[in-house]
Design brief:
Blueprint: E1 7-16, H1 18-24, E2 29-38, H2 45-48, H3 68-78, E3 82-88, E4 92-100, H4 110-118, E5 126-130, H5 134-147, E6 150-154, H6 157-164, E7 172-176, H7 185-195, E8 201-205, E9 222-226, H8 231-243
Parallel strand pairs: 5-6, 5-7, 7-8, 8-9
Antiparallel strand pairs: 1-2, 2-4, 3-4
Helix pairs in contact: 4-8, 5-8, 6-7
Length: 245
């Protein structure tokens, strides 16, 4: 929306019948939908067919990774759901996320209980978190504090590499793969290892980012955690990496 506009977010309960199942490529049943609509320039049909492809972006070079919608698609499919996009040139675009409805009561203490089961392990170790999403950094920081570790945050690869090239103690790097700042997470980690050859790294990656990581090839001391994941899995991986050789 180069000249401003309106963004609308809508949620709804959806019952998808046999006809809708074929239309949305989903099993029949109850779903929750989250739809985001803008009043921007819209997209031509040939662009709509490409938006979920990894690294496709309409932004200028250096201003986007082209991983946003492909990661949303991967999250939806791994969760048993689907994503659909509707757009008209000159009118705007709507992206709808369909997720299977959960049956049963929510256990508000379940996450805290499972994190407690992992147990505190920190003995002064410091973890560097690099992610351009503040909510993700906050989430990982909370997990680290529960485990007894100290957290340092950076919002892009430039800030992350600056910390890695300093004299600050870093026992583990937790980084998203898709990062702004000129380097992706893998490139930043490799650059950081030039100064810290024994640096341990946990990559947080979306559905479409495995190519950035060399399609599964990782050096010793590196691990991958694929979205979506539960917090106790994140906690266990962090604890395992820091405690390992």
């Amino acid at each position: 929306m180069p000249d401003g506009g309106r963004i609308t977010i809508e949620t709804a309960n959806k019952w998808i019948d046999d006809a809708g199942s074929r239309q949305h490529d989903l099993p029949p049943g109850q779903y929750l939908s989250v739809c985001v609509t803008d009043t921007g320039t819209g997209m031509a049909p040939d662009l709509i067919g490409k938006v979920f492809e990894p690294f496709f972006t309409t932004k200028p070079t250096g201003e986007g990774t082209g991983l946003g919608l492909s990661m949303v698609y991967g999250f939806a499919r791994q969760s048993g759901g689907q994503v659909r996009i509707y757009s008209e040139v000159g009118e705007g675009t709507t992206v709808c996320l369909y997720l299977p409805r959960h049956y049963g009561e929510a256990d508000e203490d379940d996450v805290a209980r499972k994190l407690a089961e992992v147990g505190r392990a920190g003995q002064g170790e410091t973890v560097l978190i690099v992610d351009d999403e503040p909510s993700v950094r906050m989430l990982v920081t909370e997990v680290l504090e529960d485990l007894g570790y100290t957290a340092i945050e950076a919002a892009d690869s430039v800030g992350g590499l600056k910390v890695l090239q300093s004299d600050v103690r870093i026992d583990l790097l937790v980084t998203n793969v898709g990062l702004p700042g000129g380097m992706n997470g893998r490139q930043m980690a490799d650059a950081g290892r030039e100064r810290r050859p024994d640096l341990k790294v946990l990559f947080i990656t979306g559905y479409a980012e495995n190519a950035v990581l060399g399609n599964g090839y990782l050096r010793p001391g590196m691990q991958v955690l694929t979205k979506p994941f539960v917090l106790e899995t994140l906690a266990s991986r962090i604890k395992e990496l820091i405690a390992g050789p």
